[in-house]
Task: inverse folding
């Protein structure tokens, strides 16, 4: 047996649009519910949600029967942490705040086995090989790992063309909230100056042969980013979806 085929990575290589959603509850049952919704991909957020390696593993288990592909966003781009999420069964990793080609190269190496990288060779005792039942995992894993980098600062934008030249980077995700704040707009990603930078970045990513991605939480932004060429688009965040629906329902039916 070989490493499982990464359907999300293949879809990106084929130029297919992939619609996803963020998961911030850090709970396996909500991940399982989200897995029934029909999204192409779902982010297990290790940066801003209260996740640890056990809760990430449990959400990967919860999504195992779903057609939605699990993307794990690590809190920081540390080799030891990437090693843990890969061994827990993640095949696609999203790394925040990437600001240089050197950093991108190190992240590629963290996702690959020697001699091409530095990933520890201990997967035969972990979930990613189904505890040793996938006998040729180590020989076939590298080609199925999908590495997505977040560029979300002015420094990252300045280094974008160099980052895009790094072999092994499958996609680049623009973080609109962080970028707009770093540009002085305090989270207002709809500001014309920010939209211009985002549009230019998405075009450059696509032109470099990488998949461009971004997050939007309203219909205007969703359509705008698709029109700009976003290929993997997150269209919401689970916590926000629950909060907004609950508030709307309460407002509609309260009598006092």
Result:
């Amino acid at each position: 047996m070989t490493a499982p085929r990464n359907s999300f990575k293949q879809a990106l290589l084929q130029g297919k649009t992939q619609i996803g959603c963020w998961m911030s509850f850090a709970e396996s049952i909500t991940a399982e519910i989200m897995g029934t919704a029909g999204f192409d991909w779902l982010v297990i957020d290790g940066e801003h949600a209260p996740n640890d390696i056990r809760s990430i593993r449990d959400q990967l288990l919860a999504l195992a029967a779903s057609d939605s592909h699990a993307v794990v966003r690590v809190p920081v781009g540390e080799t030891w942490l990437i090693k843990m999420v890969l061994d827990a069964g993640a095949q696609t990793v999203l790394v925040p705040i990437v600001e240089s080609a050197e950093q991108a190269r190190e992240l590629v190496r963290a996702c690959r086995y020697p001699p091409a990288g530095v990933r520890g060779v201990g997967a035969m005792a972990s979930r990613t090989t189904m505890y040793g039942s996938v006998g040729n995992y180590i020989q076939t894993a590298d080609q199925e790992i999908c590495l997505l980098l977040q560029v979300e600062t002015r420094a990252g934008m300045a280094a974008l063309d160099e980052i895009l030249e790094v072999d092994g980077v499958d996609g680049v995700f623009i973080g609109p909230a962080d970028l707009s704040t770093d540009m002085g707009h305090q989270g207002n990603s709809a500001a014309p100056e920010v939209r211009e930078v985002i549009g230019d970045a998405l075009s450059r990513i696509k032109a470099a042969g990488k998949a461009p991605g971004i997050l939007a939480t309203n219909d205007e932004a969703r359509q705008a980013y698709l029109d700009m060429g976003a290929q993997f688009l997150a269209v919401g965040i689970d916590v926000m979806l629950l909060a907004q629906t609950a508030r709307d329902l309460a407002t509609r039916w309260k009598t006092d």
Notes: The longest strand covers residues 18-23. The two ends are 63 Å apart (CA to CA). The longest helix spans residues 192-207.
